Amino acid sequence: MANIQMEIIPEPKQGTAAVLIPGENGPQVILKGKGKNTYICGCCRMPICENVQHGQLANLVFKCFGCGSFNRIRGT
Question: What are the structural domain ranges in the chain?
């Protein structure tokens, strides 16, 4: 399994991107799957998506539970 650091981006303007935001008291990891990659925050390195396949999460933005940074998978 590989840990892949995500790219930090500015907060997207409303309506310009699909942003996945963790709940206040919910799980820190936003998505879990059965793949080989774990995507980590580009700032604090907290896991955001665990065990997902490469290419499965295109065109999505993730807000980190730990530091509040907005992340996307590099190259998407």
Answer: 2-72
**Polymer length in residues for the chain:** 76
Write a three-state SS string for the chain: CEEEECEEECCCCCCCCEEECCCCCCCCCCEECCCCEEEECCCCCCEEEEEECCCCCCCEEEECCCCCCEEECCCC
**pTM for the model:** 0.86
Measuring CA to CA, how many Å separate 76 from each of 25, 54, 64?
Answer: 29, 11, 18
Read off the pLDDT of residues 18-70 as tens digits, 9 standing for 90 and up.
998 887 776 678 888 899 999 999 999 999 999 998 888 888 999 999 999 99
CA torsion sign for 68, 17, 76, 24 is: positive
